[in-house]
Amino acid sequence: MNPKKFTATTSWAKAMAELQDKYRLEVYDAIFAYAETGTAPEMSETAAAAFGFVKNDLDEAVDRLIDICDKRKEAALKRWNRTPETKQPNLPNT
Q: What pLDDT sits at residue 43?
């Protein structure tokens, strides 16, 4: 995950709307900590339950990003007729 940028959704806020302020703040802090470090901080059971849904979204976003990066890398290597092992272009002999 890129610790400087991630996409939050309004569904997260809607899901946490009924939480007490202290739990909602705990979840928001956990979201930013998880985005930056990749590990969830210690939190109350209530906050952890709500965070579980957000964590799934963040993990899926990371998986999508990795997949996109891999596909772009593969396309770039094909374009330049390179193999990942050599990282050297296969230039025609003249």
A: 94
